[in-house]
Design a protein that fits this description.
Layout: H1 10-23, H2 27-41, H3 47-60, H4 69-84
Helix pairs in contact: 1-2
């Protein structure tokens, strides 16, 4: 184990002491558990963010065109060929 010194506000210290008393564990164990739990959850989406992203996914998936890859390739080929020809030669 490594000893470390941290500065905590009074409210946090009171919470730490109450939690340690309630669980019958040393305060250092409570801090270790809290840091482990926090580190395990950092970077994960919260419920609100997850719901927002799933809603966006549900809105966007039905808008994905149902063309086959071959149809898309043919359309892109036609567009490229039209661009190579120089477009309109006369005013519209």
């Amino acid at each position: 184990m490594v000893k470390a010194t941290f500065t905590l506000d009074e409210v946090t210290v009171a919470r730490l002491r109450r939690t340690a008393d309630r669980l019958g564990r040393p305060q250092s164990q409570i801090v270790r558990d809290a840091i482990r739990d926090y580190a395990d959850h950092v970077g994960r989406l919260g419920d609100e963010e997850r719901t927002r992203l799933l809603d966006a996914f549900d809105r966007l998936v039905p808008r994905i065109p149902s063309k086959t890859a071959a149809a898309v390739d043919a359309e892109l080929g036609a567009l490229r060929a039209a661009r190579r020809k120089g477009g309109r030669r006369r005013r519209a």
